[in-house]
Amino acid sequence: MDDSQPTILIVDDAPENLAVLSELLQSEYRVRAATSGERALKVIKTPPKPDLILLDVMMPGMNGYTLFDRLRVDPETADIPVIFVTAMDSTEAEIQALDVGAVDYIVKPIVPPILRARVHTQLELKRARDWLKNQNSYLEAELQRRMSEVLAIQDVGIHALAHLAEIRDPETGNHLRRTQGYVRALAEELSTHPRFKDFLTPHNIEFLVKSAPLHDIGKVGIPDHILLKPGKLTPEEWEIMKTHTRLGRDAIEQAERDVDRQIEFLAMAKEIAHYHHERWDGTGYPEGLAGDQIPIAARLMALADVFDALISQRVYKQPLLFDEAYRIIVAGRGSHFDPDVVDAFIARFPEFCTIATRYGDLEEKAACKPLAGANGSILT
Known about the structure:
Blueprint: E1 7-11, H1 15-25, E2 30-34, H2 37-44, E3 52-56, H3 64-73, E4 82-86, H4 91-100, E5 104-107, H5 112-168, H6 175-190, H7 202-211, H8 224-227, H9 235-242, H10 244-259, H11 264-275, H12 296-311, H13 322-331, H14 339-347, H15 349-358, H16 362-365
Parallel strand pairs: 1-2, 1-3, 3-4, 4-5
Protein backbone atom coordinates (compact mmCIF):
# COMPACT_ATOMS: atom_id res chain seq x y z
CA MET A 1 0.00 0.00 0.00
CA ASP A 2 1.30 3.43 -0.99
CA ASP A 3 1.64 5.56 2.16
CA SER A 4 1.01 8.67 0.09
CA GLN A 5 -2.49 7.48 -0.83
CA PRO A 6 -5.36 9.26 0.95
CA THR A 7 -7.26 7.15 3.47
CA ILE A 8 -11.04 6.82 3.30
CA LEU A 9 -13.16 5.41 6.12
CA ILE A 10 -16.50 3.91 5.10
CA VAL A 11 -19.11 3.57 7.86
CA ASP A 12 -22.18 1.46 7.00
CA ASP A 13 -24.03 -1.27 8.90
CA ALA A 14 -24.70 -3.24 5.66
CA PRO A 15 -21.72 -5.45 4.64
CA GLU A 16 -22.85 -5.42 1.01
CA ASN A 17 -22.68 -1.63 0.91
CA LEU A 18 -19.21 -1.71 2.43
CA ALA A 19 -18.15 -4.20 -0.23
CA VAL A 20 -19.51 -2.10 -3.10
CA LEU A 21 -17.96 1.15 -1.90
CA SER A 22 -14.62 -0.51 -1.13
CA GLU A 23 -14.52 -2.11 -4.58
CA LEU A 24 -15.13 1.27 -6.23
CA LEU A 25 -12.45 3.14 -4.29
CA GLN A 26 -9.64 0.80 -3.26
CA SER A 27 -7.77 1.04 -6.57
CA GLU A 28 -7.00 4.72 -5.86
CA TYR A 29 -7.25 5.03 -2.08
CA ARG A 30 -6.46 3.25 1.15
CA VAL A 31 -9.90 2.07 2.33
CA ARG A 32 -10.90 1.26 5.92
CA ALA A 33 -14.35 0.09 7.04
CA ALA A 34 -16.58 0.12 10.13
CA THR A 35 -20.03 -1.46 10.54
CA SER A 36 -21.26 0.87 13.31
CA GLY A 37 -20.74 4.31 14.77
CA GLU A 38 -19.15 2.85 17.88
CA ARG A 39 -16.71 0.81 15.81
CA ALA A 40 -15.91 3.84 13.64
CA LEU A 41 -14.79 5.84 16.68
CA LYS A 42 -12.31 3.08 17.58
CA VAL A 43 -11.01 2.78 14.00
CA ILE A 44 -10.41 6.52 13.75
CA LYS A 45 -8.21 6.41 16.87
CA THR A 46 -5.78 4.00 15.18
CA PRO A 47 -3.50 5.10 12.34
CA PRO A 48 -3.75 5.95 9.56
CA LYS A 49 -6.16 8.78 10.31
CA PRO A 50 -8.82 9.04 7.59
CA ASP A 51 -8.67 11.95 5.15
CA LEU A 52 -12.37 11.54 4.30
CA ILE A 53 -15.33 9.65 5.82
CA LEU A 54 -18.24 8.18 3.86
CA LEU A 55 -20.99 7.92 6.46
CA ASP A 56 -24.33 6.12 6.30
CA VAL A 57 -27.14 7.99 8.04
CA MET A 58 -29.52 5.19 9.05
CA MET A 59 -27.68 2.77 11.35
CA PRO A 60 -28.80 0.93 14.50
CA GLY A 61 -27.44 2.22 17.78
CA MET A 62 -25.42 5.32 16.99
CA ASN A 63 -26.81 6.75 13.75
CA GLY A 64 -24.86 8.88 11.29
CA TYR A 65 -25.87 12.24 12.75
CA THR A 66 -24.90 11.23 16.27
CA LEU A 67 -21.52 9.95 15.06
CA PHE A 68 -21.04 13.16 13.09
CA ASP A 69 -21.66 15.24 16.24
CA ARG A 70 -19.14 13.14 18.18
CA LEU A 71 -16.54 13.70 15.48
CA ARG A 72 -17.06 17.46 15.45
CA VAL A 73 -16.58 17.98 19.19
CA ASP A 74 -13.26 16.11 19.20
CA PRO A 75 -10.35 18.37 18.10
CA GLU A 76 -8.59 15.30 16.68
CA THR A 77 -11.41 14.55 14.23
CA ALA A 78 -13.23 17.87 13.84
CA ASP A 79 -11.47 18.73 10.57
CA ILE A 80 -12.12 15.40 8.78
CA PRO A 81 -14.56 16.03 5.90
CA VAL A 82 -17.67 13.81 5.91
CA ILE A 83 -19.86 12.81 2.97
CA PHE A 84 -23.24 11.36 3.97
CA VAL A 85 -24.18 8.32 1.89
CA THR A 86 -27.83 7.36 2.37
CA ALA A 87 -30.96 5.93 0.80
CA MET A 88 -32.98 8.93 2.04
CA ASP A 89 -33.61 10.61 -1.29
CA SER A 90 -35.28 13.87 -0.25
CA THR A 91 -34.39 17.53 -0.43
CA GLU A 92 -35.09 17.93 3.29
CA ALA A 93 -32.65 15.15 4.22
CA GLU A 94 -29.95 16.61 1.98
CA ILE A 95 -30.45 20.10 3.44
CA GLN A 96 -30.27 18.71 6.97
CA ALA A 97 -26.99 16.91 6.20
CA LEU A 98 -25.41 20.00 4.70
CA ASP A 99 -26.72 22.20 7.52
CA VAL A 100 -24.98 20.12 10.20
CA GLY A 101 -21.68 20.47 8.34
CA ALA A 102 -21.31 17.57 5.90
CA VAL A 103 -19.30 18.49 2.80
CA ASP A 104 -21.52 16.49 0.44
CA TYR A 105 -24.53 14.16 0.24
CA ILE A 106 -24.71 11.09 -2.01
CA VAL A 107 -27.93 9.12 -2.53
CA LYS A 108 -27.99 5.34 -2.87
CA PRO A 109 -27.93 3.43 -5.13
CA ILE A 110 -24.41 4.57 -5.88
CA VAL A 111 -23.49 5.83 -9.36
CA PRO A 112 -19.75 4.99 -9.57
CA PRO A 113 -18.55 7.98 -11.68
CA ILE A 114 -20.43 10.42 -9.39
CA LEU A 115 -19.01 8.80 -6.26
CA ARG A 116 -15.43 8.89 -7.57
CA ALA A 117 -15.76 12.48 -8.78
CA ARG A 118 -17.14 13.76 -5.47
CA VAL A 119 -14.61 11.86 -3.40
CA HIS A 120 -11.81 13.20 -5.58
CA THR A 121 -13.14 16.77 -5.27
CA GLN A 122 -13.38 16.64 -1.47
CA LEU A 123 -9.91 15.15 -1.10
CA GLU A 124 -8.46 17.88 -3.33
CA LEU A 125 -10.21 20.51 -1.23
CA LYS A 126 -8.87 18.93 1.97
CA ARG A 127 -5.36 18.85 0.53
CA ALA A 128 -5.65 22.57 -0.27
CA ARG A 129 -6.98 23.36 3.22
CA ASP A 130 -4.17 21.39 4.86
CA TRP A 131 -1.58 23.17 2.73
CA LEU A 132 -3.00 26.58 3.66
CA LYS A 133 -3.11 25.57 7.32
CA ASN A 134 0.52 24.49 7.23
CA GLN A 135 1.50 27.67 5.41
CA ASN A 136 -0.37 29.80 7.93
CA SER A 137 1.27 27.97 10.82
CA TYR A 138 4.70 28.53 9.26
CA LEU A 139 3.97 32.19 8.56
CA GLU A 140 2.65 32.73 12.10
CA ALA A 141 5.77 31.11 13.57
CA GLU A 142 8.01 33.16 11.31
CA LEU A 143 6.13 36.36 12.14
CA GLN A 144 6.43 35.58 15.85
CA ARG A 145 10.16 34.93 15.47
CA ARG A 146 10.73 38.17 13.63
CA MET A 147 8.57 40.13 16.07
CA SER A 148 10.60 38.69 18.94
CA GLU A 149 13.79 39.81 17.21
CA VAL A 150 12.39 43.30 16.64
CA LEU A 151 11.26 43.59 20.26
CA ALA A 152 14.64 42.35 21.50
CA ILE A 153 16.45 44.89 19.32
CA GLN A 154 14.03 47.56 20.50
CA ASP A 155 14.71 46.70 24.15
CA VAL A 156 18.46 46.73 23.56
CA GLY A 157 18.16 50.13 21.90
CA ILE A 158 16.11 51.52 24.77
CA HIS A 159 18.58 50.33 27.38
CA ALA A 160 21.54 51.50 25.34
CA LEU A 161 20.04 55.00 25.20
CA ALA A 162 19.10 54.95 28.87
CA HIS A 163 22.58 53.83 29.88
CA LEU A 164 24.03 56.87 28.15
CA ALA A 165 22.61 58.86 31.04
CA GLU A 166 23.85 56.32 33.58
CA ILE A 167 27.37 56.36 32.16
CA ARG A 168 27.46 60.07 32.99
CA ASP A 169 26.32 59.29 36.54
CA PRO A 170 28.02 56.06 37.68
CA GLU A 171 26.30 55.96 41.06
CA THR A 172 22.89 55.13 39.57
CA GLY A 173 23.75 51.40 39.29
CA ASN A 174 20.67 49.25 38.75
CA HIS A 175 18.34 52.24 38.92
CA LEU A 176 16.72 51.38 35.58
CA ARG A 177 15.79 47.84 36.57
CA ARG A 178 14.51 48.91 39.94
CA THR A 179 12.34 51.73 38.61
CA GLN A 180 10.93 49.45 35.93
CA GLY A 181 9.93 46.99 38.65
CA TYR A 182 8.39 49.70 40.82
CA VAL A 183 6.40 51.11 37.90
CA ARG A 184 5.07 47.67 36.98
CA ALA A 185 4.03 47.02 40.59
CA LEU A 186 2.16 50.33 40.81
CA ALA A 187 0.52 49.86 37.41
CA GLU A 188 -0.68 46.35 38.21
CA GLU A 189 -2.06 47.49 41.57
CA LEU A 190 -3.97 50.36 39.94
CA SER A 191 -5.14 48.44 36.86
CA THR A 192 -8.58 47.79 38.40
CA HIS A 193 -8.95 51.23 40.01
CA PRO A 194 -11.83 53.26 38.47
CA ARG A 195 -9.55 56.26 37.84
CA PHE A 196 -6.85 54.22 36.10
CA LYS A 197 -8.32 51.05 34.61
CA ASP A 198 -9.07 52.54 31.19
CA PHE A 199 -5.43 53.55 30.76
CA LEU A 200 -3.64 50.77 32.63
CA THR A 201 -4.56 47.93 30.29
CA PRO A 202 -2.10 44.99 30.00
CA HIS A 203 -0.99 46.46 26.66
CA ASN A 204 -0.30 49.90 28.12
CA ILE A 205 1.40 48.49 31.19
CA GLU A 206 3.93 46.72 28.96
CA PHE A 207 4.61 49.94 27.05
CA LEU A 208 4.86 51.83 30.32
CA VAL A 209 7.47 49.42 31.68
CA LYS A 210 9.33 49.48 28.36
CA SER A 211 9.34 53.29 28.37
CA ALA A 212 10.42 53.77 31.99
CA PRO A 213 14.21 53.48 31.41
CA LEU A 214 14.15 56.59 29.22
CA HIS A 215 12.90 58.89 31.99
CA ASP A 216 16.30 60.51 32.58
CA ILE A 217 17.71 60.36 29.04
CA GLY A 218 17.85 64.18 29.06
CA LYS A 219 20.65 64.09 31.65
CA VAL A 220 23.02 63.40 28.76
CA GLY A 221 22.74 67.12 28.03
CA ILE A 222 23.59 68.29 31.56
CA PRO A 223 27.22 69.45 32.07
CA ASP A 224 29.38 67.21 34.28
CA HIS A 225 30.18 69.96 36.78
CA ILE A 226 26.46 70.12 37.58
CA LEU A 227 25.41 66.49 37.12
CA LEU A 228 28.28 65.15 39.25
CA LYS A 229 28.53 67.97 41.77
CA PRO A 230 28.99 66.44 45.27
CA GLY A 231 27.31 69.33 47.08
CA LYS A 232 24.16 71.39 46.84
CA LEU A 233 23.46 73.03 43.50
CA THR A 234 23.26 76.80 43.22
CA PRO A 235 19.93 78.27 42.03
CA GLU A 236 21.49 78.81 38.59
CA GLU A 237 22.81 75.23 38.46
CA TRP A 238 19.44 73.88 39.58
CA GLU A 239 17.69 75.68 36.72
CA ILE A 240 20.10 73.99 34.31
CA MET A 241 19.57 70.60 35.96
CA LYS A 242 15.81 70.94 35.55
CA THR A 243 16.22 71.28 31.79
CA HIS A 244 16.91 67.53 31.56
CA THR A 245 13.15 66.95 31.34
CA ARG A 246 12.85 69.15 28.27
CA LEU A 247 16.04 67.71 26.75
CA GLY A 248 14.69 64.20 27.19
CA ARG A 249 11.37 65.09 25.61
CA ASP A 250 13.08 66.79 22.68
CA ALA A 251 15.40 63.83 22.06
CA ILE A 252 12.50 61.37 21.96
CA GLU A 253 10.45 63.74 19.81
CA GLN A 254 13.32 63.95 17.34
CA ALA A 255 13.46 60.14 17.22
CA GLU A 256 9.74 60.12 16.37
CA ARG A 257 10.31 62.63 13.57
CA ASP A 258 13.18 60.55 12.20
CA VAL A 259 10.94 57.50 11.72
CA ASP A 260 8.16 59.76 10.35
CA ARG A 261 5.42 58.15 12.42
CA GLN A 262 4.30 57.92 16.02
CA ILE A 263 5.60 54.91 17.91
CA GLU A 264 3.35 54.07 20.84
CA PHE A 265 5.95 53.38 23.50
CA LEU A 266 7.98 56.46 22.49
CA ALA A 267 4.91 58.65 22.97
CA MET A 268 4.63 57.32 26.51
CA ALA A 269 8.38 57.64 27.06
CA LYS A 270 8.16 61.28 26.00
CA GLU A 271 5.46 61.97 28.60
CA ILE A 272 7.49 60.26 31.30
CA ALA A 273 10.71 62.08 30.44
CA HIS A 274 8.99 65.46 30.31
CA TYR A 275 6.64 65.26 33.29
CA HIS A 276 8.07 62.84 35.88
CA HIS A 277 9.17 65.77 38.10
CA GLU A 278 5.72 67.35 38.20
CA ARG A 279 4.04 67.30 41.62
CA TRP A 280 0.41 66.61 42.46
CA ASP A 281 0.02 70.04 44.11
CA GLY A 282 1.39 71.90 41.06
CA THR A 283 4.77 72.89 42.56
CA GLY A 284 6.86 70.63 40.33
CA TYR A 285 8.57 71.28 37.01
CA PRO A 286 8.90 71.89 34.07
CA GLU A 287 5.33 73.20 33.61
CA GLY A 288 3.83 73.21 37.09
CA LEU A 289 1.03 70.82 36.15
CA ALA A 290 -1.27 69.72 38.97
CA GLY A 291 -3.56 66.77 39.68
CA ASP A 292 -4.95 64.92 36.72
CA GLN A 293 -3.23 67.32 34.33
CA ILE A 294 -0.12 65.21 34.91
CA PRO A 295 -0.09 62.13 32.62
CA ILE A 296 -0.69 58.89 34.51
CA ALA A 297 2.57 57.36 33.29
CA ALA A 298 4.50 60.31 34.69
CA ARG A 299 2.68 60.11 38.03
CA LEU A 300 3.75 56.50 38.49
CA MET A 301 7.29 57.27 37.39
CA ALA A 302 7.47 60.19 39.83
CA LEU A 303 6.90 57.98 42.85
CA ALA A 304 9.14 55.19 41.56
CA ASP A 305 11.97 57.64 40.86
CA VAL A 306 11.74 59.38 44.24
CA PHE A 307 11.61 56.11 46.19
CA ASP A 308 14.68 54.80 44.41
CA ALA A 309 16.54 58.07 44.91
CA LEU A 310 15.79 57.91 48.65
CA ILE A 311 17.17 54.39 49.12
CA SER A 312 20.18 54.90 46.80
CA GLN A 313 23.59 56.30 47.59
CA ARG A 314 24.60 59.49 45.83
CA VAL A 315 27.74 61.62 45.89
CA TYR A 316 25.87 64.07 48.10
CA LYS A 317 24.00 61.65 50.43
CA GLN A 318 23.81 58.21 52.05
CA PRO A 319 20.93 55.82 51.31
CA LEU A 320 17.89 55.74 53.57
CA LEU A 321 16.46 52.61 55.14
CA PHE A 322 13.32 51.27 53.53
CA ASP A 323 11.04 52.37 56.37
CA GLU A 324 12.44 55.90 56.26
CA ALA A 325 11.81 56.12 52.52
CA TYR A 326 8.34 54.68 53.09
CA ARG A 327 7.44 57.42 55.56
CA ILE A 328 8.67 60.15 53.21
CA ILE A 329 6.60 58.79 50.31
CA VAL A 330 3.48 58.48 52.49
CA ALA A 331 4.02 62.01 53.79
CA GLY A 332 3.95 63.21 50.18
CA ARG A 333 0.44 61.81 49.61
CA GLY A 334 -1.69 64.58 48.11
CA SER A 335 1.20 67.04 47.84
CA HIS A 336 4.05 65.49 45.89
CA PHE A 337 2.17 62.39 44.70
CA ASP A 338 -1.28 61.37 43.49
CA PRO A 339 -3.01 60.00 46.63
CA ASP A 340 -4.17 56.85 44.84
CA VAL A 341 -0.66 56.16 43.57
CA VAL A 342 0.63 56.41 47.15
CA ASP A 343 -2.09 53.98 48.26
CA ALA A 344 -0.88 51.58 45.57
CA PHE A 345 2.68 52.02 46.88
CA ILE A 346 1.50 51.18 50.40
CA ALA A 347 -0.22 48.02 49.13
CA ARG A 348 2.87 46.94 47.17
CA PHE A 349 5.55 48.14 49.59
CA PRO A 350 6.86 44.61 50.32
CA GLU A 351 7.29 44.14 46.57
CA PHE A 352 9.19 47.44 46.36
CA CYS A 353 11.55 46.15 49.05
CA THR A 354 12.03 42.87 47.19
CA ILE A 355 12.84 44.66 43.93
CA ALA A 356 15.21 47.08 45.67
CA THR A 357 17.07 44.21 47.33
CA ARG A 358 17.22 42.01 44.23
CA TYR A 359 18.64 44.77 42.06
CA GLY A 360 20.46 46.65 44.79
CA ASP A 361 23.96 48.03 44.25
CA LEU A 362 26.51 46.23 46.40
CA GLU A 363 27.39 49.20 48.56
CA GLU A 364 23.71 49.93 49.20
CA LYS A 365 22.41 46.52 50.26
CA ALA A 366 23.49 46.72 53.87
CA ALA A 367 21.94 50.16 54.29
CA CYS A 368 18.70 49.29 52.50
CA LYS A 369 17.33 46.59 54.80
CA PRO A 370 13.81 47.30 56.09
CA LEU A 371 13.45 47.59 59.85
CA ALA A 372 11.29 44.91 61.45
CA GLY A 373 8.91 44.99 64.35
CA ALA A 374 8.75 42.48 67.18
CA ASN A 375 6.57 40.15 65.13
CA GLY A 376 8.93 40.27 62.15
CA SER A 377 6.69 42.51 60.05
CA ILE A 378 8.05 45.54 58.22
CA LEU A 379 7.60 48.71 60.20
CA THR A 380 5.29 51.22 58.45
